[in-house]
Amino acid sequence: MKEDAQVQKQFQPAHAFLMACLFVASAIGVMAQSAPPVPAPPPPQLGALAPSNIAKTREKPAFDLTGTWLHAFSRDNPFTFAPPPGFKLTPEAQVHYDAAKKARAEGKAYHDDIGQCWPAGLPLIMTRVWPIAMIQKPTVIFMVSGFMNSTRIIYLDGRKHTDPDLVIPSFNGESVGHWEGDSLVVDTIGFVDDHHWLDSGIPLSDKTHMVERMRMLGDGAMLEIEYTISDPKSWVGEWKWTKRWKRVDDTDITEASCLPDLNAHMPSVTSKSVNVR
Predict the structure, then answer these.
(1) Are residues 103 and 150 in the same domain?
(2) pTM beyond cutoff 0.70
């Protein structure tokens, strides 16, 4: 009996350890059964020009922008994006606006970044006196301006905007579009936060949000774009404009680079300009 008691005493720790292992294994099994399944990662976004992306079935577009376009300047269709009547700027933007007004009165340029070879960016790049070549595919529209060969891309393949923490800011932003009846609606965000202007003395920022509603007029001879732009860093509310472009079939764009040394004759890039931040 004494020997049996001694064996039983020696067995107790091993038995306790075995029971603990069984309990842990059982608990892990219960947790595995109750834990929600890990969702599969989304498939990678196909490139806009991937043949398999282009081949997907989609609704028929209302029009095809492929061609060369030029802003149809007129008194009721100016190339500028002047602020609307009664506009209200933020205090920071008001400083720029007042300084630009003072510079104009003195015959000087204020932050003429385009003259310093900074990109014009949206929306100004659309209304330069240079033609724009547009190429439309089922998944994307490429717009290449004759001015600095600035390139704009509008995705039509159903993708969403890039995560704001991951998007690479640019002067033309990230544009995604979808069709609504006879209109192409384009939403653009992801702009840079400096050297980007809407009008003289009115800066654009990384909070700029632009919506364009594009329609074709006159049997495809005229393009109309209604702009709605907001930027809480620069002004209050939304500002709206409507601009028009004419199709020009007798011209092409060419390679054009902005080189500072070739602009030395321009008054806006001389030392007398107001270009101090």
Answers:
(1) yes
(2) yes
Q: Which residues pair with 83 in a beta bridge?
A: none
Query: If we measure between CA atoms, which residue out of 67, 59, 58 comes closest to residue 220?
Result: 67
CB neighbour list of residue 122: distance below 8 Å, 6 or more residues apart: 152, 171, 172, 173, 188, 191, 210
Q: Give the Cα separation of 191 and 170 in Å (integer).
A: 5
Same domain, residue pair 89 and 18: no
- Render pLDDT for 156-212 as a digit per residue (tens, 0 to 9): 999 999 999 999 999 999 999 999 999 999 999 999 999 999 999 999 999 999 999
pLDDT recorded at residue 66? 98
89 shares its domain with 23: no
CB atoms within 10 A of CB 229: 21
Helix (H) or strand (E) holding 94: helix 91-105
State how far the alpha carbon of 10 is from the alpha carbons of 2, 7, 137, 267, in Å.
Answer: 13, 5, 80, 99
Q: Is residue 44 part of a domain?
A: no
pLDDT band of residue 28 (cuts 50, 70, 90) is: low
